[in-house]
Amino acid sequence: MKSFKNKIAVITGAGSGIGQALATELAKKGATLIISDKNADTLSVTENLVQKIGADCYTYVVDVSVEKEITDFASKIIKKFHHIDLLFNNAGFALGKISLKDVKMDDFRKIMDVNVYGVVYHTKAFLNSLLERPEAVIVNISSLFGLVGVADQVPYCTTKFAVRGFTESLRMELMDTNVEVYCVHPGGINTNIYKNAIHYEKNASLDAKFQKALERTSPEQAAKVILKHIEQKDEKVLIGIDAILGDRLARTMPVGYSKIIKRMSDYITKN
Ligand SMILES: NC(=O)c1ccc[n+]([C@@H]2O[C@H](COP(=O)([O-])OP(=O)(O)OC[C@H]3O[C@@H](n4cnc5c(N)ncnc54)[C@H](O)[C@@H]3O)[C@@H](O)[C@H]2O)c1
After folding, report:
1. Structural domain count of the chain
2. 182 catalytic residue (yes or no)
3. Each residue's pLDDT tens digit, 62-116
4. In a domain, 70, yes or no
5. How far does the chain reach from its first CA to its final CA, in angstroms?
6. C-alpha 207 to ligand 1 mean position (Å)
């Protein structure tokens, strides 16, 4: 997509972090924003930022994990705007560091519902509309943890590998259509996801060590990288040196990478 001017973009999880930055960067490029989040307060912060830039902005409070809310949301949008051009499946959360033996099944199901089914519901709900456009884009936010699996992050990695599988297979399915399908793998991005993680309290000091050892990319920078990739039709998006190295490691040492990442992680934890 060469230009975002006058294009209609839906962004989920737009009240914070990468979603908020995508909204403001797209606003600067002349897009109309339809933004959603489960948190009405943070969503209105993003709305103000977008309106200050001068773009049209419409807000919807929805929980991406509730299928009926998403089908109703999509129907309302298509009725009001007749179409959308871009769908950013961004909403997601993390549990924080926890071993599989300690994780509660309710938390495992919840993260699957939000991080995976949220993406599936939105994609299915908007796909027919996107297929009718001369050019259209679906952007799914996976993670570095959708490229490498890591200890004490089994549920989160499961969701992000699922998003990657969903995205890459859909990309092939839509190859002869006007819809491009992007899979985004951010490394560490400096957002609220760490503090909002269910087990953050237990992991706060550990998180500080990781943040110090591995500098995180800003959400604004992440949004700029994503939009640049869309402009260049480059459908695999790696954000940050950690994601670039993780991708290379997983491809060149598909089994051995676990040992290397474990040693690195143990070193950071102990120092
Ligand atoms: N920050 C990172 O280091 C990082 C790295 C890789 C991938 N990601 C992914 O990027 C995406 C954005 O995360 P972020 O870092 O900006 O986090 P964030 O916590 O700053 O923002 C996530 C937003 O999603 C919303 N959200 C969460 N659950 C929701 C639900 N059920 N329904 C509607 N909205 C919901 C939250 O309210 C929040 O506004 C997520 O999918 C995350 O997994 C983040």
Report:
1. 1
2. no
3. 999 999 999 999 999 999 999 999 999 999 999 999 999 999 999 999 999 999 9
4. yes
5. 46
6. 17
